[in-house]
TrEMBL record:
It comes from Martelella endophytica. Transmembrane segments: none annotated. This is Lipid/polyisoprenoid-binding YceI-like domain-containing protein. Residues 27-195 form the Lipid/polyisoprenoid-binding YceI-like domain. It comes from the Bacteria. Pfam families: YceI (PF04264). InterPro entries: Lipid/polyisoprenoid-bd_YceI (IPR007372), TTHA0802/YceI-like_sf (IPR036761). Residues 1-18 form the signal peptide. SMART domains: YceI (SM00867). Keywords: Signal.
Length: 200
């Protein structure tokens, strides 16, 4: 059973800073001001249609001494999709993408990590279960660990930073609208900073 939280990323290896300057292990949550999930699909071979989600929540159980033992839980509200459709008076395109049965169907998008592999000094893969449109299938996030601070110079709290990418075929989740004119392949770009759970 998935815990309600967003959708994000994780992995790493300790950066080359003194241990006392690194963020400690423990429970972290995504900082909404510094977290984004952007996705794109091919559009008739002419361009990549790009959109983003604005309501993302992620929880990370961070273990800096053994990052492969960390755990990540993510939840995205599909109704928070933003396409910047230029004619809102003609159609509520964001609402259609986020909630219509042929699209994201209004059901939470969730990712729960199951296994983490560290494959470089600051890179790794997070294997997990991605739930979308009420269906759950395997997915992988390729993650880069950007750094760790015991005290961020602006927020004054411990901070972790990650970048991630994910590639899926939306048809695996029954999302087949307009394939192949609109590509089956979806590229996802993730950026997130994490702060200790309970921190302001």
């Amino acid at each position: 059973m998935f815990r309600p939280v967003f959708l994000l990323t994780l992995l790493l290896v300790a950066p080359a800073v003194a241990a006392e300057e690194m963020a400690p292990g423990g429970a972290y949550v995504s900082d909404p001001a510094h977290t984004s999930v952007t996705w794109r699909v091919g559009h008739f071979g002419m361009s990549h249609y790009t959109a983003r989600f604005t309501k993302i929540a992620a929880e990370l159980d961070w273990k800096p001494e053994a990052p492969e033992q960390s755990m990540l839980f993510v939840t995205i509200d599909p109704a928070s999709v933003r396409t910047d459709f230029p004619f809102p008076e003609v159609e509520d395109f964001d609402g259609k993408i986020g909630t219509a049965a042929d699209f994201l169907a209004g059901t939470p998008i969730r990712f729960a990590s199951e296994r983490i592999e560290v494959d470089g000094d600051d890179t790794g893969k997070v294997y997990g279960a991605l739930t979308m449109r009420g269906e759950t299938h395997p997915a992988v996030i390729d993650v880069t660990f950007n750094g760790s601070l015991a005290s961020h110079p602006m927020t004054k709290v411990a901070t972790l930073g990650f970048s991630g990418t994910m590639a899926i075929n939306r048809s695996d989740w029954g999302f087949t609208f307009a394939v192949p004119a609109i590509s089956d392949a979806v590229d996802v770009l993730i950026e997130s900073e994490f702060k200790p759970q309970g921190a302001q």
